[in-house]
Amino acid sequence: MNSFPDQFKALVIGATGGIGAAFVALLEADPRCGSVVALHRHSQPALDFAQENSISEAALAVAAEGPFHLIINAAGILHSDKFKPEKKLGDLHYQQMQETFLVNAFGPALVLRHFSRLLDKERGVMASLSAKVGSIEDNRLGGWYSYRASKAALNMLLKTAAIEIKRSQPNSVVIALHPGTVSSALSQPFKGGEIGRPAQDAAADMLAVLDGLTPEDSGQFYSYNGARLPW
Ligand SMILES: NC(=O)c1ccc[n+]([C@@H]2O[C@H](COP(=O)([O-])OP(=O)(O)OC[C@H]3O[C@@H](n4cnc5c(N)ncnc54)[C@H](OP(=O)(O)O)[C@@H]3O)[C@@H](O)[C@H]2O)c1
């Protein structure tokens, strides 16, 4: 992470997830990283996207530990004990759409609102984990309505925020980041354990991508291998 100052400060949201925990472990092992704040639904302060106030309250509680050079939102949902990704229009219902949009788009939008101001003014990179299946242009197989649409909404929220944040924080970098297929609880029911990579490998690749970003790259959608993805 040579583009970040020595003893840089990082913050990871969704730190209990497969990928979020890998980010925390790698950053904690990096001698150039001075501190890592790991937030999740049961951290102190807690950050739960289902509790709107917890997002602003968590940002306020950790502000004194900033400013942060790197903020990563690694929270997200694909399935729950109540639903699995839709295969056809006949599977659509409000509960799944609402819960999926809440975690994948609404929560991350309020993270942009409350945490972007905690970015370091000289070197501040903020990434939210999106998914290539949220690319409208890349959608060839169909299905997974709520997940795809919530990630497409996340991408638009990130792009719009990147434009606004650049006005007051011209050195900021705000991007959507695709981790690739990773073995985790999220992907497990969909052969993630067989075809997915270890979370540590994906997180290492994504940290290398984040390290290479400059303010000119803000407002873009990147893959773990550094490629730009179509919206
Ligand atoms: N795995 C893949 O193959 C893959 C592919 C493309 C994109 N992604 C994206 O990568 C991100 C991380 O995925 P993962 O594979 O690491 O999944 P994961 O292991 O299931 O982790 C999901 C994380 O989201 C958190 N979360 C769920 N609901 C939340 C809520 N209401 N408020 C706050 N946090 C909440 C979970 O917290 P709890 O521990 O409290 O449940 C957990 O920390 C997601 O955005 C996912 O869409 C993953």
Average pLDDT, rounded to a whole number, is 97
What spatial order of strands do you see in the largest sheet? 2-1-3-4-5-6
Please identify the top-level CATH class. Answer: Alpha Beta
Structural shape: globular
Describe this structure in words.
The chain is α/β, with parallel strands linked by helices and about 230 residues long. The protein has one domain: Rossmann fold (3-Layer(aba) Sandwich), CATH 3.40.50. The chain is about 35% helix and about 15% strand. It contains 6 helices and 6 strands. It has helices at about 20-30, 50-60, 95-115, 145-170, 190-195, 200-210; strands spanning about 10-15, 35-40, 70-75, 125-130, 170-180, 220-225. Helix 3 (about 95-115) links the parallel strand 3 (about 70-75) and strand 4. Helix 1 (about 20-30) packs across helix 6. NADP nicotinamide-adenine-dinucleotide phosphate binds near residues 19, 103, 129 and 131.
Quick summary of this structure?
With 231 residues, this protein is an alpha/beta fold.
Characteristic key phrases:
14% strand; six-stranded parallel β-sheet; binds NADP nicotinamide-adenine-dinucleotide phosphate; 231 residues; alpha/beta; 6 strands; globular; Rossmann fold
List the helices and strands and how they pair.
Blueprint: E1 8-13, H1 18-29, E2 33-39, H2 52-62, E3 70-73, H3 94-115, E4 124-129, H4 145-168, E5 172-178, H5 192-195, H6 199-211, E6 221-223
Parallel strand pairs: 1-2, 1-3, 3-4, 4-5, 5-6
Helix pairs in contact: 1-6, 2-3, 3-4
The structure holds NADP nicotinamide-adenine-dinucleotide phosphate (NAP).
